[in-house]
Amino acid sequence: MANVFLVGAGPGDPGMLTLRAKEIIETCDIMIYDYLANAEFLKWCKPECEILYVGKKGGDHTLPQDKINDLIVEKSRSGKVVCRLKGGDPYVFGRGGEEGEELVEAGIDFEVVPGITAGVAAPAYAGIPVTHRDHTTSVCFITGHEDPTKGESGHNWEVYGKSTSTLVFYMGVGNLPMIAENLMKNGRAADTPVALVRWGTRCNQTSFVSTLENVAREAEERKWKAPSIIIVGGVCSLHDKLAWFEKKPMLGQGVVVTRAREQASGLVNILSGHGACVHEFPTISVEHLDDYNEVETAILQLARYQWVVFTSVNGVKFFWEQLNAIGLDSRILGGIQVAAIGPATADALKDRGINPDFVPEKYVAEHVVEGLLKLGIQGQDVLIPRAKVAREVLPEELKKAGCNVTVLPVYETKLAESSGDDIVAALDNGDIQYVTFTSSSTVENFFELVKPEVFKQYPDVKIASIGPITTKTVERFGFTPNLEPEDYTIPGLVDVLLSDAD
């Protein structure tokens, strides 16, 4: 079997990565990746994976191609699995063919994992089909940046100029005036539509349509930069009609998600689906306890409780882990009433075969207690599986109502082992418009990693708080949240972000 894989990373949108590519990324021992390969994919690498960046952009070469070839051969001889990750498709202007030849000469087996090329994907995300029966029946992919060591150009401008094909130029922004001039000199009409798509399929995608005679001037006025795809032909006239991606309500809006990585995926996926550029910055990590003897004892004595109140998805998850660890299951809750604070917690219980007896309409302690009192909880024995350190309002209010409350820590939260440097750099670049907080602990830990005096330097960045308790914690650090949903849930938080970005 091959131990070297030339892998196409696709155009950038994680949804455009193939299943085979993801499998190789997850299992490889050595990762050698390019500038145009989405660095987000690296989070799927094994912790022990050796990651090497060899990116090339705009003449700035971290490593020349011949040295990259040597590196791939050298690493492959270690016997470890090597993933050579390249933007788009390895064999479409990706120099994968050259790397493959080097491997063959070295006697090394390899496998190619094709990827979706930007020449198809970027136009599609900009509302431009590269073929269309009303405009053209063919498409031509062309490099806009030839090998400077070649003796003569490989371009046949006369053919391109007279062709009715859609022309798609890769890496051509720096040569745009020359490209436009040569096409017009060789027969392409000056009013031929031309589109430029930058960072196609990614959350920061931008595009515009011009004409062959004006596109170079307009690109200069817009200070247009690489990486961009240039599309020439009548199909570009469909841009405004068929554009769908750039209509997403949060396209290009940078949003920081501070939830623990284990919990963040739902919010990240929803925001990304609306076009946001999500900056995952988990400020807390959810950890197992060192000792579960107390939890095991409580589970074995569960029959003494009339109510079990779950305050979070994590509380459900870690409680059930211990339930299963001692050979028990959901049946042990038979005859006990169960409360879930919030719809996500309720769903976590339903996934385990428990339909909660009570889910409050609002998710603040006072409202929860009011609802439980209506169900006659006063004077009863109540178990609350939760984090080791959490707000004491709910157990205290239940105790005031005459309940015998046992708080049972089943997990703990800790400050995430991360630096705020990347977030501060993104703030400096103007890449962040919103910071979201979903609990008091995310607020406290965020301002431990990004000091309040630093964050005050960015007054235009809006704070979105999930609810009043979290808001009070934000205010304690000297800030007033700009956004807070009426419904204190993740969907509610997304709704206020969408309304604000609209």
Kindly give the count of domains: 4
Tell me what portion of residues adopts beta-strand conformation: 15-25%
Radius of gyration: 28 Å
pLDDT < 50 stretches: none
CATH architecture of the largest domain: 3-Layer(aba) Sandwich
Using the coordinates above, name the CATH class of the largest domain: Alpha Beta
Helix content: 25-40%
Number of H- or I-type helical stretches: 19
Number of strands: 21
Q: Which whole number gives the mean pLDDT? A: 92
Q: Biggest sheet: strands side by side, in what order?
A: 3-2-6-1-7
Annotated CATH topology of the largest domain: Rossmann fold
By secondary-structure content and strand pairing, the structural class works out as alpha/beta
The coarse silhouette is: elongated
Q: Determine the N-to-C terminus distance.
A: 52 Å
Q: Largest sheet, if any?
A: 5 strands, parallel
